[in-house]
Write a structure and sequence with these properties.
Helix content is about 10%, strand content about 40%. The chain has helices spanning about 65-70, 80, and strands at about 20-30, 30-40, 45-50, 55-65, 90-95, 100-105.
């Protein structure tokens, strides 16, 4: 894990994803690594897919209201929240506060090794 201090990043602010805020954090090790965030209109589920000493790379998938409600109700697992979607999908490389590279990808480009294992569900 890096030596970065948590100071609000790697959650993009004022980008094509809008101004995001954390809503649910599932894994936090120095920084949030697996979480749900939202902007004014949309929710995203995100997971760290790669890291170096100077950046973190995340997979962000837009969560439509129905899928979000199913996830929170335990009707769909984390793995399937990232796939089986027509929603927009992004790779976000967070280099530091206000320094992000954001690339839109198709859900066919999502690699299986980026995803949580099947069968893990949200539990209160």
């Amino acid at each position: 894990m890096s030596s970065f201090k948590w100071d609000g990043w790697p959650i993009p602010q004022k980008t094509c994803l809008g101004t995001l805020e954390l809503k649910h954090v599932f894994v936090f090790v120095d920084i949030p690594l697996f979480f749900i965030c939202r902007n004014e209109n949309k929710r995203f589920i995100a997971t760290c897919i790669e890291e170096s000493k100077t950046w973190f790379e995340f997979l962000y998938v837009e969560l439509y209201e129905t899928k979000y409600n199913m996830l929170i109700a335990g009707q769909v697992d984390f793995h399937d929240s990232f796939i089986f979607t027509e929603a927009k999908t992004y790779i976000v490389r967070a280099k530091h506060i206000n320094n992000y590279d954001i690339i839109e990808i198709t859900n066919k480009e999502i690699r299986e090794d980026w995803l949580p294992i099947s069968g893990d569900y949200y539990a209160i």
